[in-house]
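subagent[fold] <- orchestrator: predict structure for attached chain, return tokens only, no commentary.
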Amino acid sequence: MKILDRYILGEFFRFLAILLLLFISLFMVIDFFERLRFFISNHAAVKHVLAYVVCQIPMIISLTLPIAVMIATMVTLSILSKNSEITAMKATGISLYRIGAPILFVSCLITVALFFFSEWVTPKANQKVEHIKRVEIGKKSEKGSFKQEGIWYRGEKGIYNFNIYDHREEKLQGISLYFMTPDFHPQTQILAKEAYWQKEVWEGYQVRVITISPDGAPSMEEFAQMALPIREKPSDFGEIQLSPSEMGFFDLRKYARKLVAEGGEATPYLADMHAKIAFAFVPLILTITGILFSVRSERSGGVARSIGLGIAIGFSYWIVHAFSISFGRSGIIPPLVAAWVANVLFVIVIFIAGRRVTT
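subagent[fold] -> orchestrator:
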């Protein structure tokens, strides 16, 4: 690595570290005060509050790293421009593209790292955050678990297994209910193709009831429709269902395929699955955007201008991305298109801005 590259990257990493620490600190402080009443009302222990705050860090990094990379790029190049260092480099025959090359290379590495960080670290941390909030602080018992094979739940009188729970339609699919005697011998098994939450009861369809007599002889009855003996409400099962933020790309892909195969609504999960890939490219896209905007006009502003412009660009990206993903989740536009709308728009901005840069 040349001395020039080391010098530029040294400045870049210094500002990137400062910005990440700033974003993490701001987010943690704001979130803490938003949750303060919840902590106090539940008499949360200090260790649980600290664990909750610390487990938020991976999610904060995943969300703010692209913007931090862009602002660090703009600040680094703005300072070089303000100190006439870019002018000196250009005088020696070094183009603007070569000046930004080391930062661009690092942003490519960050793009790859962000995908795997969001795949392996962030979902686990988000699951831990929900567990701390619901069980350790909220004092709710852990009655079930979510796996790719389905949901297992310990109900008031039995054990439930569902292949799919659709919280939007308040619908259960692939239902198996197991009821035991007080000495834990099988008593009744109820199987149903699906059930809907209707008038405070779960109305099941295509139901089979298998009863085990005291002497061990089974008998079976079939019903086209009947109210299932499930006392839990949809909100109880919703607490167990993992949100897309608690799942990585491969988990989302596997679960979406399962939903499609079993006739469930997979659109929201497909939108978030594609967004996992699209968002990983954001550091690279915003880095190029930052390079072009920061060097278009030398000596046209200082650090404050770069930070303000970077926040404005980053905020604009988030607005477009949030709206497009919400449209994708609701099925207004195809999930794949929704995930890439913001990236495509910013690539167009890069192309237009790049044509005006004098190298």
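orchestrator: received. Logging for downstream: The chain has a mean pLDDT of 88. Residues 3-133+249-354 form one domain.
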